[in-house]
Amino acid sequence: ASGKGDGTEQAPYELSTAADLVKLSDLTNTKDSGYQSKFYKITADIDMTGADFHGISRCESADYDYSNNGWFTGTIDGDGHIISNLTVDNSRSIAGNGYAGLVIYSTNCTIKNLGINTVSLKAKSRAGAFVARGAATVENCYVKNMTVSGKADSNKHAFVSQAAANTKVINCYSTTNGIPAMGAPSSTPSGCVLTNVYTKNGTIANWATCTNTMNIPVSVDEVAKGNIANFVTASGRAFAADDKNVNNGFPVLKWENERIAADGKLVISDFTAANDKTFSFSIKNCKTDTLKGAVAVCFYGENNRLIAAKVYADSEIASGAFLKDSGTLSDTNQAVSAKLFLWDSLTGQSMLDCYEYTFATE
Question: For residues 76 and 1, what is the distance between their CA atoms, to the nearest angstrom?
């Protein structure tokens, strides 16, 4: 780890480089190191190109007995960041006992708010992008561009490959064609759950309890558009439409939209609204300089007619600071939709228009 934090939930160890992940892999390869049960937070996107990484809690040191001793029980919070170009080569007999993934052996670990983009897994047994074997909770995560080679090619899964009892995959997706969501050993484990999960031409895991799951086709046709809209609505805003065209038309996680701003900088916003014109929002300035502009919450009636608005004119948000507010706007008209705007008050150009709510009308 980077040296920041103490591994508690209040002050997790911070991970920001490929070297940090490799070090974590090595630290958790000793059974009694204590690092298996700690809290970790990823604080920057991490490019793993060229890194010699063999997985967290891979259990290959001599003091392991593969009976859950030293398996990973900790929490990794991606905090809306992405691990890219990850290669885990455990095709040799000792490494991870032939399993490959970000975490090799897990006992009720949690991985959340993390994207893995471009991952190559080489294994003799099983391969799972997030967890290879054991019970785990994977939440608000995605994997893209996943390839598997070796004998694990017939036992590859997007999230957890050899799931144990009570494994949960929540608000997750995979866009690699033909990769199933979750796998199981020969005896199906109990209590496994998939909620708000989609894959591309990959089975979901019908032996588990599935709620709002979807197997999408390779391309988004008109039928798929309807199914996608229903999926997004049923997810309770965990997902959003791909309005910024970053996922080939497939739904994106809420935190992915929070990374997007028109000026290419990382400005994180969160916006909720209801048709009674109740709203709340927070905007965080992740730029290195002060953000100067205007913010507006707008509610619209039929034909996109503005019926109520609150404007925060000439707002200044210092680097790392938030602008937050909530309330209810007074108006007798029924709201059909709402938007949160952020624009440059000097040029008049919109800098952020990430969030739009459309309300159901009777």
Answer: 12
Angstrom distance (rounded) from CA 94 to CA 344: 57
Tell me the pLDDT tens digit for each residue of 241-273.
Answer: 887 777 888 899 988 876 765 455 656 666 778
Asked if 86 and 53 touch (Cβ cutoff 8 Å), the reply is yes
Residues in the chain with pLDDT values less than 70: 1-3, 32, 60-69, 92-97, 152-153, 218-223, 258, 260-270, 344-362
d(CA 160, CA 69): 19
No. of helices (H) and no. of strands (E), the chain: 3, 22
DSSP 38: -
Determine if residue 2 is left, alpha or beta; phi over 0 gives left, psi from -120 to 50 gives alpha, anything else beta.
Answer: alpha
Is residue 246 classed as helix, strand or coil in its secondary structure? coil
Specify the DSSP element, H or E, that contains 27. Answer: helix 18-27
Q: Is the pTM of this model over 0.85?
A: no
Give me the amino acid identity at 225.
Answer: K
